Amino acid sequence: MLQDRGELFALTPGHANIYAAGKRPFHTIIPAFLLKDGEPLMSFGVMGGDMQPQGHVQVLTNIIDFGMGLQKRVTPPAARHYGSTEPTGEAREGVGTVTMETGFTPEIRKSSRRWI
User: What pTM was estimated for this model as a whole?
Assistant: First the structure.
């Protein structure tokens, strides 16, 4: 019934991703729906498994904060953080890694290091 797309669901009582009525565990299919003043504005989604929540934030930042249209949003480079916490909430050692696509200026790359 769930095939491999349901692999992050848990059956352990109390687990954040437990498969149960009314729960919304992390999943690799994460469409988004944006409202403005309580009214539907747009639906969207990005590919990328555990990158999806980060990708959604980057899409919204580019649209809301930088005024980009959907097509223009595809062009800017994206960044990704991974390795410090799993999507299921399991912690790992260290602060993880941030990767940046080509297109970020050297100044932005250098300034981002101060956040880590």
Answer: 0.61
